[in-house]
Amino acid sequence: MKTDKRERPSFKQKQSGQRRQPLSSSTRDGRKKRPLKKEGSSDSFLICGRNSVSEFLKSRGVRRVFLKEGKKDDRLLSLAALAEKQGVPVEEVKEEKLDDMSGGVVHQGIAALLKPYEYADLDRVLADWEGKSPILILLDGLEDVRNLGAIVRTAECAGAAAVLLPKHKSPPVTAAAMKTAAGAFAYLPVCQTGNIRQTLEMLKEKGFWVVGADMDGESLYYDANLKGPLVIVMGAEGKGVSPLTRKMCDFCVRIPMKGKVSSLNVSVAAALLIYEAAKQRDEL
């Protein structure tokens, strides 16, 4: 049974069941939402695969599409038609060239050059979620971009508000991360933040609770109270949450391990905590 003895100012609790739409230049009420403030925007880069290209075409984040020469199935033809409808140049190339361009990533006959990735502004994310119970995921020292992509994908599917990447302790958003995320970067805000301590202190002042994933956590993740505005802190592969960041957590939770392997992949562990937090919101 979960008990709640927490006493922190609320984030103006209010529930919303609306599905997130692709990030665009405006919201339903007419307020500007994109383009967001550039904070460390990366250079343009290539993504491969039909799902990834499709999602970024929907969000109008594509500069150019590369399509394999020769016979094309209906899916490739529909993607080419969508690109042309948006005025995005479509260039046919030999499949061997597409193989070289993709660098070993499975391309499924299509690749796209994206516009420079723009990190979302955290203050704007918080403003958009005011009156609700947002879930933020802060990545402390993550190194593998594929884990980043997997966590962003899970966070978007579970209805989280954003993923936070400390500027000096996280990998950049790359093509490999986007491929793993299967288009989730087009929908979920990813914020590049500064000092972790200052970021968490600011969020606590706004009514957020901070939970860390730790092998020595004081409670099991499904027994903890994860309701209300929440920051889930995930640590680095093989190292976990850093000692300084752990001190900033209000509490830590652990995942029961019954086998002989001592830990889960960080993206799998993040998925368990994110969905438990989402489930508890559904129970309200």
TrEMBL record:
CDD domains linked: SpoU-like_RlmB
InterPro entries: Alpha/beta_knot_MTases (IPR029028), Ribosomal_eL30-like_sf (IPR029064), rRNA_MeTrfase_TrmH (IPR004441), SpoU_MeTrfase (IPR001537), SpoU_subst-bd (IPR013123), tRNA_m1G_MTases_N (IPR029026)
A GO biological process held by the record: methylation
Superkingdom as given in the UniProt entry: Bacteria
SMART domains membership: SpoU_sub_bind
Keyword terms: Methyltransferase, Transferase
GO molecular function, one term: RNA methyltransferase activity
Residue stretches making up the RNA 2-O ribose methyltransferase substrate binding domain: 46-120
Disordered: annotated segments: 1-43
Cellular component per GO, a single term: cytosol
Biased composition (Polar residues): 12-27
Biased composition (Basic and acidic residues): 1-10
Similarity field: Belongs to the class IV-like SAM-binding methyltransferase superfamily. RNA methyltransferase TrmH family.
Protein name, as recorded: RNA methyltransferase, TrmH family, group 3
Organism, scientific name: Dialister succinatiphilus YIT 11850
